[in-house]
């Protein structure tokens, strides 16, 4: 069946204006004149028979229907650009700079990268782990992944996965706990970079939140996790991020029915960046991987 679509030039112009919020900025990005972009917008609205932006054109705010169309257009253009790249000769590996939270980078992202390299053998992904408190906006990147944080509006942002947090211990520690939530005699571990998560789990388990005040605290989550692996106590941890440890039996979740919702990981990239098409391919791969293999253990 033949598709009924407006002119591609008009779609490109509209997507750029809706994304950057300005005809002038969109014209600069596309390398055309202000007038050319305005004409394409007018042509598209005439083709659709409906306005795409609110009446106050100074701010170029898309209507609700326009926002939906802009999102679909942006995703389609990213996919098209990625497909076109497959026809371009590759002279040397292309570098994609990715920054991500340290624990997530080490325990989820890097272990999954071999699968990305199979699909994109000429791409060199360089992962830069970030620690809490580092100003990521000062670091050059093609793709950024953040935990529990909204990304700035000039980035195309997508949801990657949301954490589920459970209590984890060494198997020999779990054997002493019994079937009901009981942490008597078990030290608790917590990272100062994840405040409140242990307390929320204790509340969900109907245990005294006062136990959280007695927890051993560490400067970073991955250090607290190492203490748990060493048998020093129990830790509230994101199941998706440490699923490999559960799969190998190095840690167990004695009270699996008790979990709390954690924050969402969001991935962002600049749609007009030097490696925008490649970043879009990486985003699509990461979302697909998180859907197919979110890191949740079987059973």
TrEMBL record:
It holds the Pfam family HTH_1. InterPro entries: LysR-type_TF_proteobact-type (IPR058163), LysR_HTH_N (IPR000847), LysR_subst-bd (IPR005119), WH-like_DNA-bd_sf (IPR036388), WH_DNA-bd_sf (IPR036390). It comes from the Bacteria. Keywords: DNA-binding, Transcription, Transcription regulation. Gene3D superfamilies: Periplasmic binding protein-like II, Winged helix-like DNA-binding domain superfamily/Winged helix DNA-binding domain. Residues 6-63 form the HTH lysR-type domain. PANTHER family: HTH-TYPE TRANSCRIPTIONAL REGULATOR, HTH-TYPE TRANSCRIPTIONAL REGULATOR TRPI. Belongs to the LysR transcriptional regulatory family. This is LysR family transcriptional regulator.
């Amino acid at each position: 069946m033949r598709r009924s679509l407006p002119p591609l030039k008009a779609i490109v112009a509209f997507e750029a204006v809706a994304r950057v919020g300005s005809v002038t900025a969109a014209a600069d990005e596309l390398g055309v004149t202000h007038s050319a972009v305005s004409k394409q917008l007018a042509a598209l609205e005439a083709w659709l028979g409906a306005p795409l932006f609110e009446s106050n054109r100074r701010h170029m705010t898309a209507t609700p229907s326009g926002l939906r169309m802009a999102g679909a257009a942006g995703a389609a253009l990213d996919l098209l650009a990625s497909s076109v790249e497959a026809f371009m000769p590759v002279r040397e590996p292309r570098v994609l700079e990715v920054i991500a939270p340290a624990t997530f980078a080490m325990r989820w992202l890097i272990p999954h990268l071999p699968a990305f390299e199979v699909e994109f053998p000429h791409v060199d992904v360089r992962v830069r782990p970030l620690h809490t408190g580092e100003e990521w906006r000062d670091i050059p990147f093609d793709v950024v992944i953040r935990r529990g944080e909204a990304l700035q509006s000039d980035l195309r942002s997508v949801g990657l996965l949301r954490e589920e947090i459970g209590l984890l211990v060494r198997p020999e520690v779990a054997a002493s706990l019994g079937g009901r939530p009981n942490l008597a005699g078990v030290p608790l571990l917590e990272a100062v970079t994840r405040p409140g998560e242990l307390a929320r789990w204790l509340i969900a388990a109907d245990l005294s939140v006062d136990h959280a005040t007695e927890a051993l605290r560490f400067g970073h989550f991955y250090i607290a996790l190492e203490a748990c692996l060493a048998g020093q106590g129990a830790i509230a941890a994101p199941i998706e991020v440490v699923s490999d440890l559960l799969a190998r039996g190095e840690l167990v979740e004695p009270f699996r029915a008790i979990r709390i919702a954690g924050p969402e990981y969001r991935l962002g990239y600049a749609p007009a960046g030097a490696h925008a098409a490649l970043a879009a391919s990486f985003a699509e791969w990461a979302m697909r991987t998180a859907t197919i293999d979110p890191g949740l253990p079987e059973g």
